[in-house]
Amino acid sequence: MQSKKLRITSLQFFKFYGIQMRPYLLFVSGIAGATGMIMTGTVDKNSWQLLLAFLPFFLGYGFGQALTDCFQTDTDKLSAPYRPLSKGLISIKQTLIVSIVGLGMCALIFFFMSYISFLLALLTVFGLATYTYFKKKYWFIGPFYNAWIVALLPVMGYFAISSSGLWEFPRSFYPFVLITFLSYSNFVLIGYLKDIEADRETGYRTFPVLFGWQKTLWVGNGIWAITLILFWAIGGKNFPEILAGILFTIIVVIGQFKGHLSKNTEPESATFSIVSTLRGFILIHMALILHFLPDWWISLLGYYFLFEMALFFRPSASQV
Description:
By secondary structure, the protein is an all-alpha fold. It has one domain (8-312). It contains 16 helices and no strands. Helix 9 runs antiparallel to helix 10. The longest helix has 23 residues, at 115-137. The relative contact order is 0.12.
């Protein structure tokens, strides 16, 4: 097999590993962590602390995705055959080694910046390593189990910059973390639609497998409704924030509506709805950052453009 011929230090291996990381998803963890850092009110675009802490946030999601993939190759071979791990181009052992080393390096940066962020980073690694078990066994917990891991990112971002103690995370920021939790829960839940046949065949008891396409979308509608109410209850402070919030609202509503109208419930038919939840996650966190720093709109527009470029050039248009 080709995975045995490739050296873990070769450029070809890292090309395949980069595909496994899903580069377009790095923007998810990057902006979630940045949201927490901005909450401190003590950073600017040129802050070395912001730049240093952003690196592990941005790359950490990719390392985590690759790590999780090592524990669900059975379903990925059916639902995501394009991935190098599914094709056998890289091995599980190689992927585990690089993922753990990568996550370890991210954790070390957090340790340098804040012991609290470091401890929370270790907790996220534990969550990623155990996620597949809960996804496979418990239909009611999969999306939320994955979401609590991502919801820790803004908290980690806050403590990476702030000198506050462990129990001093401001209560006024709880709604922002809850928005991260809810918006990512929906991304995971709707994302299960593309894996529905593969999950059924490999014994994964996800919500779509047990309850079907339409009920999954209706649950997604409910989660988005709560997210929208929460955001507009605390947001709308300035024009850039309002604009990002409006774009988020339009995109997720259209995505859910199109999913309901789909007469073909093949996995490919879920792509638009899934991409809408992904775009929605990025946009709502842009809005949260603009809530604190409205003059960052140009930088965030550039960030969103790069995200769309990475999304456009993904290896398989039907996979998110």
